[in-house]
Amino acid sequence: MKNPELCSTRHSLLCVEGTPRACGRAYGEAHAEAIEAFLRMEVPPRPSRLRYARRCWARLGQWERPVSEFALGVSEGSGRSILEVTLLLLHEEIGHLKRCTAFGAAGPATCDGNPVIGQNWDWSPSLYPWSSLLRARAEGQPATLTYAYPGLWSAAGLNEHGLGLVWTSSGLFPRLRPRVGIPTYALIAGLLTRRNCREALELLRSTEHAGSFIFLLADAEGEVWVVEGFPGRIETARAKPWISRANHYECVRSCWLTRQKLPRPTVRKNTAARAKRMSDLLRAHCGRIDGRVAEALLRDHAAAPGMTLCQHLVRGRTSMTLDSFYLLPARREMRIARGLPCRHRYQHYRV
User: Fold this and answer.
1) Does the model's pTM come out above 0.85?
2) Which H or E run includes 154?
3) Could you tell me how far CA 265 lies from the centroid of its own chain?
């Protein structure tokens, strides 16, 4: 029986199909006003930012053609210049404000041996109204189902081959400056054109990315990987058999190369506390992780106030859980709770 205390709230879902450019154009037309508003609100196109976007577009325009064509279509459909579209895709490099917690489990850590990855998407509460879902069927490319924001059409998600991606912000302690390269949100779109983790990792290793990130990748073949990225470098680790991340690096070489120094846990800077909490929960549930357990992890309130995984807006903190989702790559399925997962039922979607 469904819990009557939970709300059944859904994201809007847009479906597009055709060539990558036609898909981008349809997406841009459908979200034209939202794209302009999100651009002005989040990354106002100042001259210095547009100069940076121009240099990044010079790389992106020559990178993965399906991604650059989609971006050009977004520009055409929304009426925004390609530099403005690129500037939006550089949101992570400029804003750098996501405070998420993510996990992955595979093989003996799960009930059926199939992988599961998930996260709470923790961001400024002012951004709660802006998220949506996009199902894209671009010619010559795998169909995708992605979590999206205006102009950020591929913020997380999975494709028809069963390759999925969730992620968190990083490069914060100290804050790392981005460089000219492929924007993080464009990089995610490119990764979701691949068939499995091996192909995705090959693309990452051959790409000059612009910023910092921590990706968790999973595929239908049963692999789960974490990728810690910072300007000029990535470090990878395979889940054995589970893995988790908050907003700091844990690979030894990443910590050393970035000279990372973690802050003492506070309500505002609680990355160390969240990482430990998620790790402890995964260890406790190892061998029994499935959708039910994934939802319980993401709804966690058992830690000290201000240190929980389901993050409510509390005094002293500027972020909260806007949405919560997990991916089941073997089923090509995303399950997502709109808003705080402790208040909302997870809705089921397939690619």
Assistant:
1) yes
2) strand 152-159
3) 24
Residue 40 Cα to chain centre, angstroms = 22
Sketch out the chain's domains with CATH numbers.
Answer: 13-92 (no CATH), 97-133+141-350 (3.60.60.10)
Tokens at residue 130, please?
Answer: 């802006």
Residue type, 297: L
How far lies 261's CA from each of 20, 85, 175, in Å?
Answer: 42, 34, 10
CA distance linking residue 264 with residue 272, whole number of Å: 8
How many residues make up the chain in this entry? 351
Q: Amino acid identity, residue 80?
A: R
Give the whole-angstrom CA distance, residue 276 versus residue 244: 9
Of 110, 113, 134, 132, the C-alpha closest to 121 is 132
Instruction: Determine the 3-state secondary structure of 258 from DSSP.
Output: helix
One-letter identity of residue 324? S
Tens digits of residue pLDDT in 218-251: 999 999 999 999 998 999 999 999 999 999 999 9
Sign of CA dihedral 279, 2, 11, 332: positive
Token pair listed for 261:
């120094």
Q: Quick: pLDDT tens for 255-296.
A: 999 999 999 999 889 999 999 999 999 999 999 999 999 999
